[in-house]
Amino acid sequence: KGGGKPNIEPRRISKPVSVGGIMVRPVPVKHGCLTILGYTFTEQDRQAAYITDCSALPSAGLRTILPCQTLIIGALRSKPHPTHFTFDQAFELIRLVYETGGQTLRQAFFTHISHETSHVQIEELCTRYLSEHNLSGLTIAPAFDMLHIEC
């Protein structure tokens, strides 16, 4: 109201909610010792999961995101961090989602990336991981500003 300040009303999300015909479901994730939320977004038979700012996905969270076709996942850097996935940890979660979800996962994007690794270097890591693990039909890539994702 005036002065360019947003007029917002914060609300806790503890159960699924429909927003514009899209079902938004909270997903419990770990951020170090804290339990925070990721989200799934479901429209008809398509589901995307947004799991960022995260260091672990408990089994309840994994069950919530399956099956999904698109996974957006935080991958901070190569070096371990107490509250964020490394690239290797994110790769392993992607593979778990792919295998546990009946290979419905089609694409995964890294986000919440530090400045320590270039976009090109991350693309090379993704290409190498896909090749070494024979994950046919799956795309893994770093996200970038203005990326448009088709689910």
Overview of the molecule:
The chain has 3 helices and 7 strands, in the order ββββαβαβαβ. It is an alpha/beta fold and 151 residues long. Strands 1-2-3-4-5-6-7 form a 7-stranded mixed sheet. A hairpin with a 2-residue loop joins strand 3 and strand 4. The radius of gyration is 16 Å and the shape is globular.
Low-pLDDT stretches: none
Task: List SSEs in N-to-C order.
Answer: EEEEHEHEHE
Query: Nearest-angstrom radius of gyration?
Result: 16 Å
Strand content: 25-35%
Overall pLDDT level: 93
Q: What composes the largest sheet? A: 7 strands, mixed
How many separate helices?
3
Q: How far is the first residue's CA from the last residue's CA?
A: 36 Å
Which structural class matches the secondary elements? alpha/beta
Write down the overall geometry. globular
Strand order of the largest sheet: 1-2-3-4-5-6-7
- The count of DSSP E runs of length 2 or more, i.e. the number of strands, is 7
The percent of residues in helical segments reads: 10-25%
